[in-house]
């Protein structure tokens, strides 16, 4: 379980690291990849790649406060016109000298001006070969590849290279059931033996304990659970509309149970399907 921090104030980043370390996270990550318009003003995210020494200082302060928990960096391959492979290797070399051993690389550059965050996830071209070249340039470091991966088959191809791993974002959100195949097909373990119905009911038990969180936040991760299945649009519509109804206010478990009951009537095969 990893927590990501965004910022550039050394004292605040160190304090936040210390707090996170007390909660037992396995890793604390520095955000050097977010292209939001706020990052330039706040001097965090992708804007930090323009100042490798500042990231070195941040990492150094966080490492001292981390109580031994690894500090890692998530970044792009470049920013605006600073997008050469030489500049990327300088960034990696500088930051790694602080003690950062693992970099998660979104294999696109970021445009801080001209593109919004959504466009920054799709328009700049992917350069997986740059990430592979980094593994040759820095064999003593670990690199994970992020960006554009849409299927487990694509992940398997990437994992044939000398990378530490893959990071997926959009596909995990847009089709979360794919995660049930990863243990089996990537790690060789047994697949998910729970049906989607059983997974949702376990989740409903969990959120009942988190009743102080608003319905929308708790329900949203389930929106695309049946992506690609017949009548999934009716399930999504019910979730969206019902989450705003008064009768479900403060009772997201009932909302979820009603949603899967509806879908079970529409498509019981998909509801009870497993990856086992």
What characterizes the major β-sheet? 6 strands, parallel
Fold-level CATH name of the largest domain: TIM Barrel
Gap between N and C termini, in Å? 24 Å
Q: What gyration radius follows from the Cα positions, in whole Å? A: 21 Å
What's the CATH H-level superfamily name of the largest domain?
Aldolase class I
Task: Kindly report the oligomeric state of this protein.
Answer: single chain
- The total number of structural domains is 2
Strand pairing plus helix content: what structural class?
A: alpha/beta
What is the general shape?
Answer: globular
Mean pLDDT: 91
Order of helices and strands: EHEHHEHEHHEHEHHHHHHH
The percent range for helix content is 40-55%
Please mark out the parts with pLDDT under 50 across 5 or more consecutive residues, or reply none: none
Total beta-strand segments: 6
Using the 3D structure, state the CATH architecture of the largest domain.
Alpha-Beta Barrel
CATH classification, class level of the largest domain: Alpha Beta
What fraction of residues sit in β-strands? 5-15%
Query: What's the helix count?
Result: 14
- Spatially, the strands of the biggest sheet line up as 1-2-3-4-5-6
């Amino acid at each position: 379980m990893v927590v990501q921090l965004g910022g550039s104030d050394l004292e605040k980043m160190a304090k936040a690291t210390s707090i996170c370390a007390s909660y037992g996270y396995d890793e604390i990550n520095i955000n050097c990849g977010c292209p939001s318009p706020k990052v330039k003003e706040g001097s965090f995210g992708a804007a930090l790649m323009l100042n490798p020494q500042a990231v070195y200082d941040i990492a150094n302060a966080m490492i001292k406060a981390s109580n031994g928990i690894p500090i890692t960096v998530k970044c792009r391959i470049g920013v605006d016109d600073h997008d050469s492979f030489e500049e990327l290797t300088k960034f990696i070399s500088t930051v790694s000298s602080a003690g950062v051993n693992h970099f998660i690389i979104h294999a696109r550059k970021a445009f801080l001006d001209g593109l919004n965050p959504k466009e920054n996830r799709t328009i700049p071209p992917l350069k997986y070969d740059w990430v592979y070249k980094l593994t040759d340039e820095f064999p003593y470091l670990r690199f994970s590849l992020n960006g554009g991966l849409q299927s487990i088959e694509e992940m398997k191809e990437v994992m044939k290279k000398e990378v530490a791993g893959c990071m997926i974002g959009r596909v995990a959100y847009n089709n979360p059931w794919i995660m049930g195949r990863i243990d089996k097909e990537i790690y060789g373990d047994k697949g998910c033996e729970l049906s989607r119905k059983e997974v949702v009911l376990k989740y409903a038990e969990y959120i009942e304990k988190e009743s102080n969180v608003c319905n929308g936040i708790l329900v949203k991760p389930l929106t695309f659970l049946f992506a690609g299945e017949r009548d999934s649009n009716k399930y999504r519509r019910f979730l969206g509309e019902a989450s705003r109804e008064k009768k479900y206010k403060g009772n997201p478990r009932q909302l979820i149970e009603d949603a899967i009951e509806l879908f079970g009537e529409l498509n019981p095969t998909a509801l009870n399907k497993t990856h086992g």
